[in-house]
Design brief:
By secondary structure, this protein is of the alpha/beta class. The radius of gyration is 13 Å and the shape is globular. The two termini are 22 Å apart.
């Protein structure tokens, strides 16, 4: 089952990016820090979405928000 990998790291390097890709089933990577250009290229080649500099406060909310899909 695909999942989103969340990292609270200062930097995600290409070495770590390759390890994440090797896990399989990762659809996206979010981090509170920086993703290096080579790491972004690794994620792009593996078709893994990524986002960097996400404020920690967004992960620390006491209540989760649920999004409903219209169908």
């Amino acid at each position: 089952m695909p999942y989103i990998e969340i990292k609270a790291r200062k930097t995600i390097s290409s070495t770590l990016a390759k390890k994440i890709v090797d896990k399989g089933n990762v659809s996206a990577v979010l981090t509170t820090g920086k993703i290096t250009k080579p790491a972004k290229e690794v994620f792009d080649e593996a078709e893994i979405a990524w986002a960097e500099y996400i404020p920690e406060g967004l992960f620390m909310e006491s209540e989760a928000q649920e999004v409903e899909e219209e169908g």
